[in-house]
Amino acid sequence: MSASAGESVSRHADNLVVVSHPLVQHKLGLLRDVTTTTQMFRQLVNELTLLVTYEATNDLGTELVRIETPLESTDVVRISGKKVAICPILRAGVGMLDAVLSLIPGARVGYIGLYRNEVTLEAVEYYLKLPHDIAHRDVILLDPMLATGNSTATAVDRLKEAGATSVRLIAIIAAPEGVERVHADHPDVRIVVASLDRGLNEHGFIVPGLGDAGDRLYGTK
């Protein structure tokens, strides 16, 4: 279900956005390649996150502000409304954090530590640290891969328990099963990805996928 290379617009359906721009799809193809080095994998994750974040934030509220240029007064557009909190899911989501912070440097950062029990495929929480004012912020949740959706749904549970009312997920690839799982519990969460892959294999991994994003980011197995 990946977007064809010739498409340059995003597909929208049921609060899911698949960014099909040729640059995104080109870099995603390099990211999937088993021969891509750890260094290049990190760089590609950063670049893809930048591109997907551009789409994921296209509905942020704006306002006109009067400023002085070197030549005259003029009205310019500034982001208005609630401030932003960026929350990567540990550990792979941290590989996306710097890219989003480079675009929204004033954002607060929270961390959600979850790992998947490889037998039950359920999420196990081991760490949670969120901004104290998260209820007053638009939350951007980061995780390169949306597979079963159990970890993401649990992360959104924790964010909402802390008071968050606006949550969107930026991922690089997703499986249909993961999207359905998240939206079953949280239909209000906007999911923005570079690809909606075919599905999950018998071990709960995305196929064709790109392997374990955390291992490929950090050179571990």
How would you describe what is shown here?
- This protein has 221 residues and is of the alpha/beta class.
- The chain is built from six helices and 16 strands.
- The strands form four sheets. Strands 1, 2, 5, 6, 7, 8, 9, 11 and 13 form a nine-stranded mixed β-sheet that branches. Strands 10-12-14 form a three-stranded parallel β-sheet.
- β1 (11-13) and β2 (16-18) form a beta hairpin.
- α1 (22-32) packs antiparallel against α2 and α2 crosses α3 (94-103).
- The protein starts with 10 loop residues before the first strand and ends with a helix.
Give a short summary of the structure.
Helices cover 31% and strands 31% of the residues. Residues 1-9 have low confidence and may be disordered. The protein is α/β, with parallel strands linked by helices and 221 residues long.
Task: Outline the fold blueprint.
Blueprint: E1 11-13, E2 16-18, H1 22-32, H2 38-56, E3 62-68, E4 73-79, E5 83-90, H3 94-103, E6 108-109, E7 111-116, E8 123-129, E9 137-142, E10 145-146, H4 150-161, E11 166-170, E12 173-174, H5 176-185, E13 190-193, E14 195-196, E15 199-200, E16 206-207, H6 213-218
Parallel strand pairs: 2-13, 5-6, 5-7, 5-9, 9-11, 10-12, 11-13, 12-14
Antiparallel strand pairs: 1-2, 3-4, 7-8, 15-16
Helix pairs in contact: 1-2, 2-3
